[in-house]
Amino acid sequence: MIIKEVRGKSPEIGKDCFIAENATIVGEVSMGDECSIWFNAVVRGDVNYIKMGNKVNVQDGAVIHGTYQKAATTIGNNVSIGHNAVVHGCTVKDNVLIGMGSIIMDNCVVESNSIIAAGAVVTQGTHVEAGSIYAGMPAKKIKDISPELSQGEIDRIANAYVTYSSWFKET
To answer: Which residues of the chain have a pLDDT value below 70?
Structure first.
């Protein structure tokens, strides 16, 4: 793994986190407890800060970054960022699932209890409504989330990644 200071700022990693051997975390990054940064994921707090809450998983190949002097990235609690997603200079609130290969651009706000579908492109400045699913290119609201879907997918995946990361800590 690469954990590196940039411009005098070093990553701060919470308790009980898993960082894969080839993950990269640099600069002004703060991460809560029970987070996981998976294989080939990059969390790059070099040009602006990145703040992550508790129980955030950044899956394989995902990139978290921001824009210099313009757009930092803030991620809440219980958030899953799917394989090869890009989360850039935006705010993602609590209990969110960001699907594989999706892109969330600068100055977006993804409200709590939302799902960004796989492959969606959330264009700059979009405000994703709480409790909704956004899909497409550009991403648009396609429906509201039922409590069953919220628990069945958002909570299930976040909890599963806490379990998966424990497998790697045992070895």
So the answer is: 170-171
